[in-house]
Amino acid sequence: MRDKADIGMIGLGVMGENLALNMESRGLTVAVHNRTVPGLEEGVVRRFLDGRGQGKHFIGAETLQELVGSLAAPRKIMMMIKAGPPVDELIEKMAPLLDKGDILIDGGNSHFTDTIRRTRDVDSKGFLFVGAGVSGGEEGALLGPSIMPGGSPAAWPHLKPIFQAIAARAPDGTPCCDWVGKDGAGHFVKMVHNGIEYGDMQLICEAYQIMKELLGMAAPEMHEVFKEWNAGDLSSYLIEITADILAFKDDDGRPLVEKILDTAGQKGTGKWASVVSLDLGVPLTLISEAVFARCLSAMKDERGKASKVLRGPVPAFGGDRHAFLADLGQALYASKIISYAQGYTLMREAAREFRWDLNYGGIALLWRAGCIIRSAFLDKIKVAFDADPQLSNLLLSPFFRGKIEESQAPWRRVVSAAVTNGIWTPAMATALNFYDGYRSARLPANLLQAQRDYFGAHQYERVDQPRGRFFHTNWTGRGGKTASTTYTV
């Protein structure tokens, strides 16, 4: 074992412990520390060293001073702790112990605005700060996650060998980790990843609900469908695990999935993506519907009462089930494209707002392995942005435009059948609505602007005048010529 560790890990929860084991397996010596705060159990470091870390290249540190003293310069310290105030508190405790050029890494799901602030503050003290989004869950952390680092650019040469060594490998051998951009760029891209994850999961759940409620399919039958889908265009980690889940039986031989309470949890990253989209004026409709779907699922007791008094259609299917399942697969695929298209639009607008130089094709490559949204068509996103680096929307690229065209009729049939039969499909339906709105040269916002001008003198532009010229009409004859200031939030 080396006298000094290559990197320090603070936080030995699920992600921190497995990342530390991953690092050690790549030939690194890792110093480990776990915070001792009220509500957290003590002795975590010793149990780790006597358990999964026994006989391996770890240095235990019971205090922050011991941790800092055990690290080679420049010190690299990764924090895998709860996002929010605990990160700020730990940075404040660490600062007096560090030397110029030392690197602090926040590997949790921190809000990107916090990372922007922390990068500025830590840099001002002479240290370096990195906000690294890490995706892949427990297995990914241990065997190879997708890592999305951003922050102080000077830190990357020191972290690149470590992060790219522990990251997942795409089929072509490329590590699913590269520098994303300055200050909060890495955590922003991770937030968008999680938003797309919310969308993908909700779309899959809606397909499951249609199979169950409209087609009357049992879990083993659905397992076969998802297994087949995973061998084609829909191939992805989430489709794969859905097939596995549907095949899993409880101790009594019945599908476990049907015994799980239908109320979903969330940790905030999807909500953050929705809030930021409103701030930036980006129609992130599918991901936002996925967030609201979890909120509605949480109203379990209220829904139970409502189900006894509110009536709707009784689902009844009389067509060709095989043909409809083919339609459903295409509807799921088309909706998935919309989710990614909206996520990429959000990243593009954020790059303008925060002055990030994002490599959009490169970001798709980071998601090809290790992460939760890894799927077959990520290479196609790279191709789309290689062909047109200024591409404003994935829907305008030849590949995705062609796939939407192929799927459009089946997509409409599925959404129509769901609405007619009272099957809840918020994400799939809003995906189709977004597509119809995006492809419309003229929307009814002209009437909306007239309404705003009528009641608030908010002004409007005219189709027969240059853009940027605004007009106000005295609609009732009782108003004056004074108009409100024109602005868009």
Quick structural gist:
The protein is α/β, with parallel strands linked by helices and 489 residues long. The chain has helices at 14-25, 44-50, 64-69, 85-94, 112-124, 137-143, 156-166, 185-214, 219-229, 237-247, 269-280, 285-297, 300-307, 321-354, 360-366, 378-387, 398-420, 426-438, 445-456, and strands at residues 7-10, 30-33, 58-60, 76-79, 103-106, 128-135, 146-151, 181-182.
Tag the structure with descriptive keywords:
single chain, 489 residues, alpha/beta, eight-stranded mixed beta sheet, 19 helices, globular
Describe the protein in words.
This protein has 489 residues and is of the alpha/beta class. The protein is 51% helix and 7% strand. Strands 3-2-1-4-5-6-7-8 form an eight-stranded mixed β-sheet, sandwiched between helices. The longest helix has 34 residues, at 321-354. The termini are far apart.
Helix content: 40-55%
Separation, N- and C-terminal Cα atoms:
58 Å
Q: In percent, how much strand structure appears in the residues?
A: 5-15%
Q: Report the total helices.
A: 19
Helices and strands, with pairings:
Elements: E1 7-10, H1 14-25, E2 30-33, H2 44-50, E3 58-60, H3 64-69, E4 76-79, H4 85-94, E5 103-106, H5 112-124, E6 128-135, H6 137-143, E7 146-151, H7 156-166, E8 181-182, H8 185-214, H9 219-229, H10 237-247, H11 269-280, H12 285-297, H13 300-307, H14 321-354, H15 360-366, H16 378-387, H17 398-420, H18 426-438, H19 445-456
Parallel strand pairs: 1-2, 1-4, 2-3, 4-5, 5-6, 7-8
Antiparallel strand pairs: 6-7
